[in-house]
Amino acid sequence: MSEYSRLFSGTNPTQVVLNPDTEDQLTCYGYRANRWKLLLFILLSFSSFGFLLLLMLWRPELECYIKRKKCHLRDADTILIQDHVKRWFVSQVETKGFDDHIGAPEKYNQFGESSDEDDPECCDTTRLKGPEVSLRYFDHQHVRYLWELGVRSFVQLRDLSHNTKCSTIMEKFQGLSKVEQAQKQVVYGANLIDVEVKSYWRLFIEEVMNPFYIFQIFSIVLWLMDDYYYYAACIFLISVISICISLHQIKKQSIALHDMVAVTEQTMEICLGQGRGYEKVPTSCLVPGDLIVLPQNGCTMTCDAVLVTGTCIVNESMLTGESVPVTKTPLTHQEDEEVYSPEIHKRHTLFSGTHIMQTRYYGSARVTAVVVRTGFRTAKGELVRSILFPKPVDFKFYRDAMKFIMFLGFIAALGMIYTVVMYVKDGIHPFKIVLRVLDVITIIVPAALPAAMTIGITYAQNRLKKESIYCISPPRINFGGRLDAFCFDKTGTLTEDGLDMMGTIPVHKSSFLPLQTDPSKLDHGPVLNAMATCHSLTIMEGELSGDPLDLIMFESTKWVLEEPGRDTSKFDTMMPTVVKPCTRDTFLPNQEQPPLEIGIIRQFTFSSNMQRMSVITRELGKEHMELYCKGAPEKIISLCVSSTVPTDIKEILQSYTLQGHRVIALAWRPLDPKLTWHQSQRISRDKVEKDMTFLGLIVMQNKLKPQTRPVIRKLIAANIRCVMITGDMIETAMSVARNCGMVSPQDKVIIVEAVPPDHNGPARVEYRHSEMPTDRDTENTLEYSRLEMETSNINFHFAINGKSLSVITKHLPDLLPRICVVGTVFARMKPDQKCQLIHKLQSLGYHVGMCGDGANDCEALKAAHVGISLSEAEASIAAPFTSSIPHIECVYTVIREGRAALTTSFACFKYMALYSFIQFVSVMILYSFEANLSDTQFLYIDLVITTSIAIFMGYTKPTLVLVPKRPPGSLVKLSNLLSITVHVLLVAIVQVGALLYLMAQKWYTRALPDEDAATQKCWESTTIFLVSSYLYISVAFCFSRGPPYRKPIYTNIPYLVTLVVLVSFSTMMLLLAPHPILDFFWIMPLWEKDFHFRLVLLAFPATHLVLCWIAEYTLTATKCVKKMTAVCKKKKMNPDSYKYIRNEIMMTDWPPIGQSMSGEEAFRQTVDQEGGEELKEEEESMHVGIIN
Q1: Helix residue ranges, H only, 823-876
Q2: Tell me, what DSSP letter sits at residue 101?
Q3: CA 506 to CA 513: how far, in whole Å?
Q4: Do residues 111 and 158 lie in contact, with contact meaning Cβ atoms separated by under 8 Å?
Q5: Residue limits of the Cation-transporting P-type ATPase N-terminal domain (predicted)?
Q6: Which residues face 30 on adjacent strands?
Q7: Under DSSP, is residue 552 helix (H, G, I), strand (E, B) or coil?
Q8: Rounded mean pLDDT, 1165-1178
Q9: Sign of the dihedral through C-alpha 967, 969, 973, 977
Q10: Residues 6+ apart with CB under 8 A from 625
């Protein structure tokens, strides 16, 4: 699909879709200034006292609708942008001219390939002609979009990483002239990743403009006008403190991110091309296409560049989290026809932020690289962009909260109507009516609601921090409470980072020899030589360093490695790197025969796509060179002469991989004696990596981390589905899944294999049983059987590799949901496939978590609802959670805290809703008597009672054990709505009952209205205030549910003390209040009345507490309510949800084992055999069971 798509035909469109069908999709609309609309805007702004400006700040699209006129994109000075989640943004169209002395470039973007023109570097953009000497563009979230004449649309600015062949990079970009550099600097801008640190004043303005604080300001002004000075002053003080804390945190985070990405200004030597020599320029001036010279002693990369000459030793800990030197080699001519990709060709790519430790070159040649990406377009820039502009959290809980606030607004409207009717009827002054009407809004819609809902999250975040788990996206903590599926990487996450050498299995005359546990004792020959030479190890500061697997393999041979001369010179020259055995002859050589030394002439570095690496070597005294190769067994076998491969290779491989061991295959081939050293440096690997002799296998142990098995067992017991997504072999992954408990001992594992369509027919899929050994531990088997009965009735698991998954995704998409629902092991998965699988699970209704430890997992970590990185690499900081604990115990902790935080959020929301209704009922009752609560009474209710309860309610810690049932995720579910409705009726009945009891007293006299006073002492307000004070405490106590997600309420000592103090103080005011208390709270002297009256008043809230407890814990949990909830859910059951699909699978004999079938033939055939009507009836009954 093209990179842009017009929404309607015409040569001059008014809108366009950029990056269609991606997460970066933008729908752009053209607007330009209009003087008449601008005049109207000014008039509306003044007439609305600036409220229109606030609306435009909250809804940026209004600026275009009100001030500007829609127009063709070619004439637009403003672009209205809507992203894929329906958020709106406004960007200004900029025009930048080119200086006369440099002129305009012939093309904006000179890096794309085109099939339509003879010029191989012709881009998709139209050449500038005639008077067109300026650049027209807009920037959105640090991505630039250029206006292109040929397509009459904006198109994203491209660079060398887009649609450029490797041959073009090596042959064309030999250095840019100064004019070309200047032109490209205009187009691409500075090579900087500049994170803006806003001033406190600007942050203050932005924070105050938040709707929450605007509502607070409105409320404070209203209260001051109504003479509520104490209350207004306290709310103002609290708001100021809240703003200051928020500003400090935002500023601190901005500075931390700015310092993390900041790079000390340095210079880089660039080639000017065509023999013009070299020149040093600031790195901020680098542009795509520059040919840079890398310094001998290393540097920190500030751009993404592809190596074209020489070799580099790079520390990529920023990407991988491991300070392991990585060798980068130059592009080769065998890749000429390949389109360059930083991911596919990452072994040749130097990424921004990584540190070049050494450069190694051929003789006197320079180590050079071509700049491919700069600024925010680099890998590091994309990482920073993902932090600055995170994907919005779409949680049903928050959507329901907004719906409920709208409902409260509707209730407020009813209250306002009632107030107007009552006050007009009594002839109250219009100004006072307006105050009372507006006051209703501040009562029914509590301004503290957003803050109260985040208190539980804040406590959870602090507790996680104490556990060395850091969260950069606090709202995602609540997501942790809803997780029902969790995906794990294998190596470094479930298993230990390092490997242990188990031994080598040599091949002799096409037959395997016994396992040799000490490879150094092997006879000198190709097997030992392969282990000593086939690696990318190097010496750094006197220490051998490189890939851990290579280190373990080489050290097991007990050979030594020597590199000639200085580290940065004579690399790959006639004096190559040498390996030799560490024996007496090595140091005291026999003069009669040459010592055993092998020179490594050339390396073909490891490629994840090729799944192998190889070296060309020459042994001292031999006339020919040799090739040694190691890699994935299936790949090495395909490159070997079949007669050299043992016939029982499949059985031997399975015997080790099914035990969870890592297996590497070795191969060897003598090269043509006529092959010279110079030819060996230019020959392509596909010409030498063929017709090899199979040498044997290297077996390494990859042990489970001690915490893995217990955590997986607890997650399964909590009804959380566990899935493994790994790049390792499928057999090894299945073994680890069995050993760690993802696959229970009695369950079967079915391997799914899919083949793409060919001349024999359409794409087909086959299901076959694996030959995995089962756990014969009776105790474990019984325990897992119990867990399986509690969680799922499906007694088999799918295992599939990335290749088969791609075939199913592309050719058999209807089968993909079932694969995802039953799949437990996904092996040989590429980074993009991991991310795609996460998205597919989410589309099926799963709340998905992901835990990984490497840069390969970054995209999946960001895509998951809860992504936990075990790596401290900079590339992993974009994950919502980062754990310093290097094992998956953090997963269990995050889920426990998530469930507790979500439960707390629900409790706080329900409490704040009831608090609003209690006060609303109180005020409506008092309005009927032309009375109201006093300033200090509001102060006591809102600040002393409500604020203290909201603060300490969320302090309750999570339980230590996860239960199978998850906390509810919807506020508007039937049980919640019924609970709130019952509680509202109870508080209304109690307050009205107390008032009626007051009016029944012989001494009662109704207060006369006083229009000159905002409030007045009266028996009505005294009774309502004293009784309602208990109601706030009662509902808070009943909503503070402990188990199964939080510890009991008595463990929350601060909260318990708060409740006791509040009850004691309220009781003192009712029974024994001294005069100062009565005067301060404007309470009538109750002590003058009989004690019986006060005791009966106390009985009203006591009765409410009992009824409230019954309503919360008994009424809403009855079978009738549960059945009604299940029926409502069944009606909403989505056929595409994982529950529906899982239920469908359980009622059939699918999958057909041992059959190769296309599409959904097997599944549909089984369904048809079951019978239509009978199946539907069974589905309906099963759905209710699943929901419950």
Answers
A1: 831-843, 858-863
A2: T
A3: 6
A4: yes
A5: 168-223
A6: 79
A7: helix
A8: 46
A9: positive
A10: 601, 616, 617, 618, 670, 671, 675, 680
Return d(Cα 268, Cα 761) in angstroms, integer.
Answer: 57
Architecture of domain 485-495+705-771+794-893: 3-Layer(aba) Sandwich (3.40)
Domain boundaries, the chain: 12-109+132-157, 211-259, 267-388, 396-468+894-1009+1018-1116, 485-495+705-771+794-893, 521-583+595-641+663-701
Phi, psi (rounded to 5 degrees) for 771 = -110, 45
Omega before 757 within 30 of 0, i.e. cis: no
* Residue 594 pLDDT level (bands cut at 50, 70, 90): low
- Whether 747 and 788 have beta carbons less than 8 Å apart is answered as yes
- List, for residues 704-753, the tens digit of each pLDDT value: 899 999 999 999 999 999 999 988 888 888 888 988 999 988 888 999 99
Where helices occur in 338-497 by DSSP H, the ranges are 379-388, 396-425, 430-444, 449-466, 476-480
What is 267-388's CATH number? 2.70.150.10
Which architecture characterizes domain 521-583+595-641+663-701 according to CATH? Answer: 3-Layer(aba) Sandwich (3.40)
Is 21 part of the annotated catalytic residue set?
A: no
Report pLDDT for 1002: 87
pLDDT at 785: 45
Q: Please name the residues in contact with 777: beta carbons below 8 A apart, sequence gap of 6 or more.
A: 745
- What distance lies between CA 314 and its chain's CA centroid? 28
The mean per-residue pLDDT over the stretch 52-77 comes to: 90
Q: What pLDDT is recorded for position 116? A: 40
pLDDT in tens, 972-1023: 777 778 888 889 999 999 999 999 999 998 888 887 766 555 567 889 999 9
**Helix ranges, 445-594 (H):** 449-466, 476-480, 526-533, 548-557, 584-587
In this prediction, residue 217 carries a pLDDT of: 86
| Fold (topology level) of 396-468+894-1009+1018-1116 | Calcium-transporting ATPase, transmembrane domain (1.20.1110)
User: Of these residues, 489, 567, 728, 853, which one is catalytic?
Assistant: 489
Q: Distance between CA atoms of 363 and 343, rounded to whole angstroms?
A: 30
CA distance 754 to 766: 6
| Long-range contacts of the stretch 397-400 (C-beta < 8 A, 24+) | 397/478, 397/902, 397/905, 397/906, 397/969, 397/970, 397/971, 398/475, 400/970, 400/971, 400/972
Two tokens, residue 89 = 């943004």
Instruction: Write down the pLDDT at residue 100.
Output: 60
Distance between CA 1072 and CA 1068 in Å, rounded? 5
Residue 1076 identity (one-letter amino acid): P
The alpha helices in 683-729, defined as continuous H runs, are 685-688, 708-717
* Residues listed for the chain: 1188
What pLDDT score does 569 carry?
46
| 241 pLDDT more than 70 | yes
Buried b (16+ CB within 10 A) or exposed e, 960-993: eebeeebbbbebeebbbebbbebbbebbbebbee
Closest CA to 723 of 790, 822, 861: 822
End-to-end CA distance of the chain: 44
- Mark out the alpha helices in 522-609 (DSSP H runs): 526-533, 548-557, 584-587
Return the amino acid letter for 199: S
DSSP 596: -
With beta carbons less than 8 A apart as the criterion, state whether 640 and 667 touch: yes
Task: List phi, psi (to 5°) of 1125.
Answer: -65, -40
Question: How confident is the prediction for the chain on average, in pLDDT?
Answer: 82
Q: What is the pLDDT of residue 1125?
A: 62
Spatial distance between the Cα atoms of 426 and 1062, rounded to a whole number of angstroms: 37
Residue reference for tokens 């601060």:
1054
Residue 791 has pLDDT above 50, yes or no: no
